[in-house]
Design brief:
Elements lengths: L3 E6 L3 E8 L2 E2 L4 E5 L2 E5 L1 H17 L15 E4 L6 E4 L1 H27 L3
Antiparallel strand pairs: 1-2, 2-3, 2-4, 4-5, 6-7
Helix pairs in contact: 1-2
Length: about 120
């Protein structure tokens, strides 16, 4: 198995770069959750984050339900036009955390190893 350079993880999934020989492949991020893997650019990851946000707004009807956030499944659009995922609100929140955590870590790394260097 190839080695990875982990970016972020939570109880639902992980994001990482694949290591290739001496250098890491930083052009795309591997995002893995729910037995599914996506190989995305940063722009696609940002798009996915927006799709999750829109989906949360459309499907936030669990406030008064006894099974809050865990029973109702709906389709989540992905940056891959031909792929939608069936998720519940709890999974959607974990996916959002995974994506936002990944983007945040990438921004911090860009600052530390880019503009923030002396």
């Amino acid at each position: 198995m190839k080695e990875i350079d982990q970016i972020y993880h939570n109880e639902f999934g992980i994001s990482f770069f694949w290591k290739k020989e001496q250098n890491n492949a930083y052009e795309k991020i591997q995002l893995v959750f729910k037995e599914t893997g996506f190989y995305l650019t940063v722009a696609q990851l940002r798009e996915f984050c927006q799709l999750v946000h829109v989906s949360k707004l459309k499907n936030s009807c669990c406030d008064d339900c006894a099974f809050k956030n865990s029973c109702h499944k709906f389709l989540l659009k992905t940056p891959c036009e031909a792929i939608d995922l069936a998720v519940n609100m709890e999974e959607l929140q974990l996916i959002e955390d995974l994506i936002r955590g990944t983007l945040f870590t990438l921004q911090i790394d860009d600052f530390i190893y880019g503009v923030g260097r002396n």
